[in-house]
Amino acid sequence: MNVLILSAGTRCKLVEYMKDVAGDSLVITTDCSDLAPALYVADRYYVVPRVDAPGYMETILDICQREQVAVCFSLIDPELPLLAANQHRFEEIGTKVMISPPEAVARAFDKWQMHKFCVQHAIPTVRSWIDPEPVRAALASGDLSFPLYAKPRTGSASKDNFQIESLSELHNVAERYPGILIQEFQSGEPLDVDVYVDMVSGEVVSLFAKEKLRMREGTADKAISVLDKDLEQFVITFCEVAGFRGAIDIDLFRTERGFAVLEVNPRFGGVYPHAHECGLNFPKLLLNNVSGASNRADIGTYEAGWIMMTYEDIVSIPPADALGPEAA
Amino acid sequence: MNVLILSAGTRCKLVEYMKDVAGDSLVITTDCSDLAPALYVADRYYVVPRVDAPGYMETILDICQREQVAVCFSLIDPELPLLAANQHRFEEIGTKVMISPPEAVARAFDKWQMHKFCVQHAIPTVRSWIDPEPVRAALASGDLSFPLYAKPRTGSASKDNFQIESLSELHNVAERYPGILIQEFQSGEPLDVDVYVDMVSGEVVSLFAKEKLRMREGTADKAISVLDKDLEQFVITFCEVAGFRGAIDIDLFRTERGFAVLEVNPRFGGVYPHAHECGLNFPKLLLNNVSGASNRADIGTYEAGWIMMTYEDIVSIPPADALGPEAA
Fold first, then answer.
1. B40, B222, B278 ranked by CB distance to A35: nearest
2. Interface pTM (ipTM) of the complex?
3. Nearest CB to B35; choose among A271, A309, A319
4. What range(s) does the ATP-grasp domain occupy (chains A, B) (predicted)?
5. Which tens digit of pLDDT belongs to each residue from A104-155?
6. Is the separation of the CB atoms in A70 and A1 below 8 Å?
7. Which domains does chain A have, with CATH numbers?
8. B277-295: string of b/e by CB count within 10 Å (b at 16+)?
């Protein structure tokens, strides 16, 4: 059961975990940059065009066929809608895709759509607007106060996020970035939950919750594992309603009034290694699903209080290897 | 020969390299945060006050005495002047310090002092000013053009750095941050050189040069090793004039008119692992020096074209360990 990890970037740890469970099968990676370290820790790799280049999907399908890939998945958000839309083409050549349904992917990609979905389904979420008028009204009535946050509807890694401290800043941001998402400041603990929704049964079978202790470029670089029955139930209910499949990553807050969803990345989250080092094993659950078996739910079996801290490791490759990808 | 690494932060790789050469001796780390991952990869660790807290130096001297530390060094810039000023106190208790002379440390800490020193000693360097008047004059005469850069004289990690594109931006930056360093835009290849200046002989005995391929928070996260006799000679000459000792890190540019020094960190550089993975071994040279022996120069023996790429690894510690440092 060969595995293809698309747009693998710097996710070396995940490639290694996948190799651990793949046994004699190959773990193959792609990236559009030959300076992506995760290429070089895989069993085999391909440097491919950017996901937005013409013919990209054909290149990937060709690799799947040539390498007899049993399952593939991507690690970057812009590729998820593509995979969701082309799932049937992969299935025709015998490759499963770990991806959520197209509508779930589209919603997660657009934070405003996700917000509206949560409101419709009575899932507590962070108050958000794309029109500055109701924001001004709420501020005037005392129902809302500064600071506010503004972020692109489809952004990532905290790029182009602004903190808004006054009416004039609100005016400037709304003028300059029409349609930007405006969010209430959220006090409380920022949480991140890695979830595995079984691809056969559709049930949440594994989840790992952590409190984010410090952020760097939109991702926690220090976190502590959390065990909480209410949180587990909140996440399970949310996933049932939202229809995700496979490994996903949910950002939320624990507030005085309960939990509130901030956003979802329907792919392996950046700090999945924390979960893995605490005994969870999503790659194993995935390969089980690919072989046709469902997984039994195993929730809340890790230990609370494990602290994770990231640091920089390096991949170094000799001059010869730098020129020798499997194909272009 | 126990080793103490001060303010170890996220430098887990360096701690591991040091453990490799230390054999049965202990490698001990300190940090002011108990969330510094390098604490937990050492043989023993201490969570200590911040370097600017009263009594900090006494805490460190006490650890050196208690742990029979043969050599200590720091990984953060604000601690270097402290170590340089207190070197004799360490020597009194039998601990060597890997540190450059106080005047060399002070110069490296203040980019404007370093610039003036280079100009005085005819060492090519990036054109810099702290007074905006000569900058305006040079712009008016066509001797200088936008963009310019402004950065704090004693900053690090590219924090509070500005690119200046126009006279009005120059005016605003100079008004708001009086005394800020203004630098010419430097075209050409950005290089970074790890150097080991023997603490016994005062000679440059090892160096590793790399071209920076991509930057993240002031440090190269992708780089390629470079072999260049002219560069070696330039760095050796510079180090002789500047009087550094031990492991240092030099940022420079290769321009059409030759090399130009940008700045120096007189400590292990953040991407030293690149050098180490290519066969250099500064920790071994350091322990040799501590035992009283000098090292033979061994320059230009690594391979050019090795590419280094960083990725995030994690340290995770169980709940019990998080509460048990050796001392506070």
1. B222
2. 0.88
3. A309
4. 115-291
5. 999 999 999 999 999 999 999 999 999 999 999 999 999 999 999 999 998 7
6. yes
7. 2-100 (3.40.50.20), 127-184 (3.30.1490.20), 187-309 (3.30.470.20)
8. bbebbbbbbbbbbbeeeeb
